[in-house]
Specification:
Nitrilase, globular, aliphatic nitrilase activity, five-stranded mixed beta sheet, Nitrilase/N-carbamoyl-D-aminoacid amidohydrolase, Aliphatic nitrilase, disordered C terminus, alpha/beta, Nitrilases_CHs
Length: 357
């Protein structure tokens, strides 16, 4: 697929409907219509925007979250399912790529899921946040390496991570090594305060510089009425303020257009894709600036499964308890033992190996 020379992108900062999935879906469809009407070819929404980010889990103690957690289950999204089909139809009608953040329900579990819908209306990537952060671990299950993929879309090679996954350098490097051209970052917004907005900005600007790609980031927004409905305690409600940094960053680390830090809005920018080569000519982290003989990343991209079947005559797959050799000081016998274990092992560990001594 030929890479486009220019791409018009939109990052959407709007408030969800905290009462129903249908209400939030209507806002998503309206925003797609508006952004597409302005010529956007890629439209990005905030982290778990559908039906809403679980702000309650940040404010309430676990013993008081049961009712809201169940309500989140009742309003969560199946992927694929009716909601993604309707949004896919809108993407196909407008010929745009849409990136959604959803609370995905899979039987008895919820996941923080990023969905990339191509201009054809088809889902080309469904990935789950690999490690929910702090309070989020009470809400969502863990994703796996199958989502650490860069996908071809109508706007070029797209990769995605959610929120503090950007603090995992190996997860970021996995996407960098697949030469993402546009990186999608999604954060909840209306959380923690200005320090969170500052951290988001530093993080996405650094990734753009290090990866040599564009970053399109969308954060959510809550009105004062919505904050009061989540938390009647005015003192605690301060934790639901600030933290918004809807932004579009160039491969050179700067804002393509001024960010949105308050209120609702749609940020539009035109990306000059030639800037990727301009940046990578000087510093290509996974090319001429890499030293793979010294440092390399191993990724297990197989989907995790709670059950595996073994047919007659096959050896069972046993997860390895072997640890990475970070010091390069093991004996030859130990290396041989590890090789024997690895031959039939289900290893789920990223390994950075130094030279043997």
């Amino acid at each position: 697929m030929a890479e486009p020379a220019h791409v018009r992108v939109a990052a959407v900062q709007i408030a969800p409907d905290l009462k129903s999935l249908a209400g939030t879906e209507a806002k998503v469809l309206d925003a797609i219509d508006e952004a597409a009407g302005k010529g956007a070819e890629l439209i990005v929404f905030p982290e778990t925007f559908m039906p809403w980010y679980p702000y309650f889990s940040f404010i309430l103690p676990p013993v008081l979250t049961g009712a809201e957690h169940l309500r989140l289950y009742e309003n969560a999204v199946e992927v694929p399912g009716p909601v993604t089909e309707r949004i896919g139809a809108a993407a196909r009608r407008h010929g745009v790529v849409v990136v959604l953040g959803v609370n995905e329900r899979d039987h008895g579990s919820l996941y923080n899921t990023q969905v990339v819908i191509d201009a054809s209306g088809e889902i080309v990537l469904k990935r789950r946040k690999i490690t929910p952060t702090f309070h989020e671990r009470m809400i969502w299950g863990q994703g796996d390496g199958s989502g650490l993929k860069v996908v071809e879309t109508a706007v070029g090679k797209v990769g995605a991570l959610a929120c503090w996954e950007h603090y995992n350098p190996l997860a970021r490097y996995a996407l960098m090594a697949q030469h993402e051209a546009i990186h999608i970052a999604q954060f909840p917004g209306s959380l923690v305060g200005q320090i969170f907005a500052d951290q988001i900005e530093v993080t996405i600007r650094h990734h753009a510089l290090e990866s040599g790609c564009f970053v399109v980031n969308a954060t959510g927004w809550l009105s004062e009425e919505q904050k009061a409905s989540i938390c009647p305690d005015e003192k605690l409600r301060k934790a639901l303020s600030g933290g918004c940094m809807t932004a579009i960053i160039s491969p050179e680390g700067g804002h393509v257009v001024p960010p949105i830090t308050e209120g609702e809005g749609i940020l539009i920018a035109d990306l000059d894709m030639k800037l990727i080569l301009k940046r990578k000519r000087m510093m290509d982290s996974v090319g001429h600036y890499a030293r793979p003989e010294l440092l390399s990343l191993v990724v297990d991209d197989r989907p995790a499964a709670p059950m595996r079947t073994v047919t007659s005559g096959e050896a069972p797959v046993i997860p390895s308890l072997a640890t990475p050799n970070l010091e390069g000081s093991k004996s030859d016998e130990a290396d041989d033992a590890d090789a024997h274990v690895a031959a039939g092992a289900d290893q789920r560990v990223a390994v950075l190996r130094g030279p043997s001594r």
